[in-house]
Design a protein that fits this description.
Structural class: mainly alpha
Shape: globular
Largest sheet: 2 strands, antiparallel
CATH superfamily of the largest domain: Cytochrome P450
CATH architecture of the largest domain: Orthogonal Bundle
Radius of gyration: 26 Å
GO molecular function: heme binding; iron ion binding; monooxygenase activity; oxidoreductase activity, acting on paired donors, with incorporation or reduction of molecular oxygen
Number of strands: 2
InterPro entries: Cyt_P450, Cyt_P450_E_grp-I, Cyt_P450_sf, Cytochrome_P450_Monooxygen
Number of helices: 17
Pfam family, one: p450
Family: Belongs to the cytochrome P450 family.
Keywords: Heme, Iron, Membrane, Metal-binding, Monooxygenase, Oxidoreductase, Transmembrane, Transmembrane helix
Helix content: 55-70%
CATH topology of the largest domain: Cytochrome p450
Number of domains: 3
Distance between the termini: 83 Å
Length: 389
């Protein structure tokens, strides 16, 4: 009797083991070999990949060497410093070449017309790769930044109203208030005797404060805490993603994976507290909607879909709401903070333009705080941009 039961079980286990071996061989050897041969036939070549790691070690070595010393002068030509492998491989293999991020192929295109054709004809079937999506799965989840195809189109349609002109104008008061607080803290630092400040830190805090208020409304203090946790989570996910080329690495009980799990739970617990407080206000009749900020719009959309479908299997669920909040909160603040930091650096290194901009602001705003109507009259930067183009 035991043999009758064990025989089919062993057969099933054997089949599963063979499938696992085949899938691993296919992922790490057969599929990359097929892709490489196909690209070779089309004349697209690239650096020789290593087993498992592809060209990751080559890229790390080149970047480490390029950034080993400080920049001697401020220069806009920083591609060779940040992406030295692109410059090296394009000089060796031409305007299009293939390199490997572990077992994933990456095609580098530098021809404008080919890029336009790709984006216009194949945008619906292109998108983020498995490694990119897996690397950010515990960080920003499956929000707009990591969505592909129809999911991307649907999510973009849902969040687009949050960035319409009139809605953005309504955030002006929050932006002014946060900027005044940032300038005050900067003034206090200088008055205390500091001769140098890390301006990037102040710009990061400024954009985080603004998005905390515009995305979470009155719960912006919790939003600031979420930002801090997301910063830590990004760092841990970036470290863990370096090992994604190793089979099963995301399941290892490593220090990174344990910290990632803990941080993700903290972030989502805080988000759930904010979401629940919005739901409670609607349920007890204190409010007839979840709010007009990004979080409120997402919750209103989720509720509308539930009513329309008559069940909880809506196209936007609670997890996706949290993923969208994390996406726009972190990705939105980081890009803006970098832009502001770069702008301040350029003004600091070009004092003549600093004087011109300051004079224009004083003239247009009469020494007061700029209003929305006055922003369109600050044309000095726009004129310079037209001259350059």
């Amino acid at each position: 009797m035991a043999m009758v039961v064990l025989t089919p079980l062993l057969a099933i286990l054997g089949i599963l083991l063979l499938k696992l071996i085949y899938d691993s061989l296919s992922c790490y050897w057969l599929t990359p070999l097929r892709i490489k041969k196909t690209m070779d036939m089309q004349g697209v070549r690239g650096p020789k990949p290593r087993f498992f790691t592809g060209n990751i070690l080559d890229m790390a070595s080149l970047v480490s060497k390029a950034t080993s010393q400080d920049m001697k002068t401020i220069s806009h030509d920083i591609v060779g410093r940040l992406l030295p492998h692109f410059l090296l491989w394009s000089s060796q293999f031409g305007k299009r070449f293939l390199y490997w991020n572990g077992s994933e192929p990456r095609l580098c295109l530098t021809e404008t017309e080919l890029i336009k054709e790709f984006l216009s004809k194949h945008s619906t079937v292109s998108g983020k790769s498995w490694q990119q999506r897996q690397g950010s799965k515990n960080f920003i989840g499956e929000g707009l930044l990591m969505a592909n195809g129809e999911d991307w189109y649907h999510q973009r349609h849902i969040v687009a109203p949050a960035f319409m002109g009139d809605r953005l104008k309504s955030y002006a008061g929050h932006m002014v208030e946060c900027t005044k607080e940032m300038l005050q803290s900067l003034k206090i630092a200088l008055e205390s005797g500091q001769t140098e400040v890390e301006i990037g830190h102040y710009m990061t805090k400024l954009t985080a404060d603004i998005i905390s208020r515009t995305e979470f409304g009155t719960s912006y203090q919790k939003g600031k805490k979420i930002f801090h946790l997301l910063t830590l989570l990004q760092s841990r996910c970036a470290q863990a993603s370096r090992h994604l080329c190793i089979p099963g690495s995301r399941f290892f009980p490593s220090k990174y994976n344990r910290e990632i799990k803990s941080l993700k739970m903290e972030v989502e617990t805080l988000l759930m507290e904010i979401i629940q407080s919005r739901k409670d206000c609607v349920e007890i009749g204190r409010s007839n909607s979840y709010g007009n900020d990004l979080l409120g719009m997402l919750l209103n959309e989720m509720q509308k879909k539930k009513k329309g479908n008559g069940n909880n299997n809506s196209s936007i669920n609670l997890q996706l709401v949290m993923d969208q909040c994390k996406t726009f909160f972190f990705a939105g603040h980081e890009t803006t903070a970098l832009l502001l930091t770069w702008t301040v650096m350029l003004l600091a290194s070009n004092t003549s333009w600093q004087d011109k901009v300051r004079a224009e602001v004083k003239s247009v705003c009469n020494g007061g705080i700029p209003s929305l109507d006055q922003l369109s009259k600050l044309t000095l930067g726009q004129r310079k941009k037209r001259e350059i183009s």
